[in-house]
């Protein structure tokens, strides 16, 4: 696979010449002439025979065939002969060339260009042989390569059968280098062009071109969008300095800002612009005093800011534009779109972040997943390292701590939890009640005002409620975090969640009370006044004051805290950015905007300004005052939770309030688009009734009557949704079970694997051990130690014994083939003796201990004599020996040779050595000649040869500077041998074999005698 | 687009855009070029064989303080020593971008943590990671304990080391990984 990445396909010339469009062109043009049609049946048989005719209709089957053919081609391409005169096949060969290249490197080195699956296989293979030697790797390498090739082919098949979009995504997800991906893509494109070439080509070309065009457009759009991305640089800076958990806040802020921009654009263009076009003279009678910016009252009261200023008329400028309907539908559609967007982002976030979250693996997570690669500032990096170290240490000591908890301690913890919950609930309830009474008080104040313009002081009094609300929102959370510090939590997450839940509870109850007051008191109290505008103003004030309090919050919470932390109490250090609190503030602000959208359609513009300023404010405050968070919480999960919170209590609350207002409450009679109606929703009713007159709109009426106005429909929908939810819940349960089972299975397989690995290792390690033991044995027999002589001798004796036994069986009249074993037995005996003698010789030479060497020598001699005797006996006794003279003689000669060698080695003294050598030479010659003669032409030359040999030996022996005794001995022996030779020579012509044997016996006997004599003399 | 077309051919652009996970191509190209303006030509239509040494790559502000910068460069460079061609460079930042799929990220993160390139994260790799992440300030016992704990938690098949499957399994359960294994360019 490594070969893919390098030369050939990716060199510049190839790349430039064979690019995508060209591929396509070369692939799509040939079929006009379609020269391959007649080849197809030959190549692919009947399966594809009729596909030219069928290609138009059966797209499904055609596609399958196509992909199958693609597969065929891949699998056969490497080995099959190339197609003549087919331009695109040349390219295939170019591709397949890479498959054919020999793979030189080990699979473990083949890293970059494999797909994930290929890699997985290779890994699995390698893990089967963890300590494999290179030889083993060689063995498995082929298998791995084969499998990898198969896998790549499978991958190609899959890719070819995909649609363009899926294919692109799949290619992107391959874990390969860019080069490899490009190669795969070009291959796939090549296949596709082949495939396309068999279909109607102009259409294929057209569709390809259009898809290419759209793709290009898409890329251009996307890159433009990325270039225009808001605050990219700031985000990068924040992420680099504070990590991704703090960045969550800013992402959230940006996201909400986009929501508000969308809602502002929608409201402004569909509600406000038509009104301004129709009646541009909506101006307030009250002069602008400046305080309106805070209160939203006075000058703003009768502007397009609020509900009251909108008209209920139908504009007639060529087209009819019903302002009532526009107001109603714009807000409804906006809310629905918001809901859908929230649901989708929530669902995707859940899917990404909550599917399989396992709180158990904290250490692994901390070590391998928690490092924030986006952090770029050196200070932060060191701080993060410190934090991680502290956390790891904590997690190490945590286990010990948990076990120490006793029952009273647990009770104490429980008590503290209970108390803090009680106190915080009491606080929340108290806040809600106080706000309610404050609102009532304020209402009484309002009712005392005259109908004219309010004084400055009166107007300023309206700020009391929003001020109190924002103050509570600022202060009460501080109490909550104080409780949180007192409480004891087993882990960080539950601590954060408790805090979040309490804060959400607080804000929900405050908003709930306010809404209750607006819905039930304001709306009923003054039907003559424009109550929607009053609610709108109240919301405006809340939004503005909340903005100021958020600024104050970051001033006190971050700037002052920083000053205190760095100047006064150095132990505290600079503060951390509290993501949870800040995000909850944002959620609260956004909820206000959602509720206010009905009462004040242009409230999103204020919200946009607010968020925009807040972004920079928080950014500055963060970079100037804060330090990166010590605990790197699971930011992604927190984000999911925030989106969920934004959706569930807050957005759902807002939409239900807006819904309740428009469905059930009486709109003001004198102002607003819905003046004169019982409910805002009646506008739809009237519109539908109006539709009756128009022809062809029966379906809308039917939908309205049978779906929107029918309780049964909603009942059924609710039932269905409940049922579906239940089914999905059950599915989730089933999946959870399945996941558990699969996990267990993985664990079991891991056990199996380790077990098998152990076995393999045992086997692998036991085999080489045996070998070494054997070789050790062999070596030890060659390495004599002083103590091992007796062993050597014993072995020699044993060997001889064996030989004797074998001979004995042989002599018992076992048939001819046994003589081979006899000779081999003899051989063994000789060899053994030889070894023994060598050892004794060594011993003699080294230790210079004559007696022992003598005994050894004598032992060896004895053994030799006995062996000789046996051999001779054997020779003489066995009649059928001569039936097989060749083997016998060779055996004899071998035996003699062996003995000679043994003798050579055994002779210790120099004289003896020389004598022996000489004799050995002579005997050797004699023996050799004897055998030669016997084999070739026994009768004639043997005697002369023997005589020659004897003479040579005589000469040799004569030359020896031996002692007189020796000389005598030698002479005697010489005589004897001469006699023997003579005899032998005599006898030979008649019966060469028999005579030979007897002569030999005699010679041997003589020699024995001579030796005896020699020994005596010595 | 006008600029880009002079740097790359349309075909090159198309290939880059299909194969890459995102298309901040020109920005990345200029970042690459800024590292060594005298080495990198402005015209890539001829596919010049330019490689920037690790010293330059590692001095990028995005990587400068990253404890794993050398590993990142090694893993993504074709020669395994941190010297990067433009393709390697694009590879690196596309994997580290926001839009890269989880499996791709997990695979390369695994390679980054696999210091000895044996396709497994073994204890020595974990120790190296730990030392890089904690400035070697933990005692040996603590390092050992942490490594054992990690193995305990993440090693599903009990073979004493983390395979890619183990690692992916862990990544799936740690959703933050997607946002933390991310370098903004």
From TrEMBL, chain A:
- Intracellular or extracellular location(s): Membrane
Keyword terms of this UniProt record: Membrane, Transmembrane, Transmembrane helix
Superkingdom in the source lineage: Eukaryota
- Tell me the ranges covered by the TMC domain, including all copies: 530-636
Q: Where is the composition biased (Basic and acidic residues)?
A: 65-74, 768-780, 865-880
**Quick one: a GO cellular component term?**
cytoplasm
Gene Ontology MF term list: mechanosensitive monoatomic ion channel activity
What GO terms in the biological process aspect are recorded for it?
Answer: cilium movement
Give the way it sits in the membrane. Answer: Multi-pass membrane protein
Segments carrying the region annotation (Disordered) are 20-86, 765-789, 865-888
Broad class of the protein's primary localization: membrane
The residue ranges crossing the membrane are 255-278, 290-309, 321-344, 418-443, 463-484, 496-519, 539-560, 640-660, 680-704, 711-729
Q: Which family does it belong to?
A: Belongs to the TMC family.
Q: What protein name applies here?
A: Transmembrane channel-like protein
Q: Which organism is it from?
A: Oryzias melastigma (Marine medaka)
UniProtKB/TrEMBL annotation, chain B:
The record's listing under InterPro entries reads: CIBP, EF-hand-dom_pair, EF_Hand_1_Ca_BS, EF_hand_dom
Gene Ontology MF annotations: calcium ion binding; magnesium ion binding
Q: Where is the EF-hand domain?
A: 101-136, 142-177
Q: Which Gene3D superfamilies does the UniProt entry name for this protein?
A: EF-hand
BP term (GO), one:
calcium ion homeostasis
Which keywords annotate this record?
Calcium, Magnesium, Metal-binding, Repeat
Q: Which PROSITE patterns match?
A: EF_HAND_1 (PS00018), EF_HAND_2 (PS50222)
Name-wise, this protein is: Calcium and integrin binding family member 3
Q: Provide the species name.
A: Oryzias melastigma (Marine medaka)
